[in-house]
Amino acid sequence: MNSQSWSPADRLRRAVQGYPRRAPLTLAYVCLLLAGHAWIGHGLSADRAATLLGHLSTNLDNLQDHPLSALLGSALFFDGTLTDVTSVDFVGTLITFGLGVCCSLAWVEARWGKRRAAAVFLGGHVAATLLTAVVIAVAVQHGWYPAAVRQALDYGVSYGAQTVLAIATVALPRRGRLPWAAFVLAWPLGGAEWNGPLPDFTTVGHLTAAALGFALLGVPAFRRQRARATGPSSAAHDSELHRDSAPHAAAAATGGETPPSA
Fold this sequence. Notes:
Helix content: 55-70%
Oligomer: single chain
Largest sheet: 2 strands, antiparallel
Structural class: mainly alpha
Strand order of the largest sheet: 1-2
């Protein structure tokens, strides 16, 4: 059956069936996040869960005291809800965990491979966190943020998710890219709280992560990989052109034509 005649249900079913093959790393990460969310919510007492998340929080004090465990550990959990579907937190979960990790990260992995997907996601998470920490430090010095923000609870996958959400803009048809990019930049501002000239630090972090994602679209390595993704079909086409032209070239004693470059 021609793929163009598939119903939306057929397309969804085939996408789900092919998910483990196209994005095995993303699937493993999604399972890890779900397991961590269940463990924090149901496997630990409220006090122990708060202590663990407080240790993994990427606030200024933790980044100065144990930066590596805070940066890596905070990416093992997502801050949101999967059950309170009427809350604002659930909308955030749909965007960051659903659209960001489950969809956009999977697309990046299928398009550019496991290593680039992991590097982009983790790089966005770490870079946005560190750049936001600089903004927080400056804002505290100028009195724009209260001093208590140094110990604020800040963990989760949303910065990495925001980075791949921005990168996934190129997965859309051209007419949908500008609205999607506007959505990626606008949704963090929906619930922003302004402190003087700056919004709250999580909004700053999300906007920074989005900017990093858009900037990565201009990296030559990604453009080369996109070219290689179309290489086999182009190579086959060039091979046919070479075979067709070879007899004529031999008759003319030219030794054959050079196939056009892909």
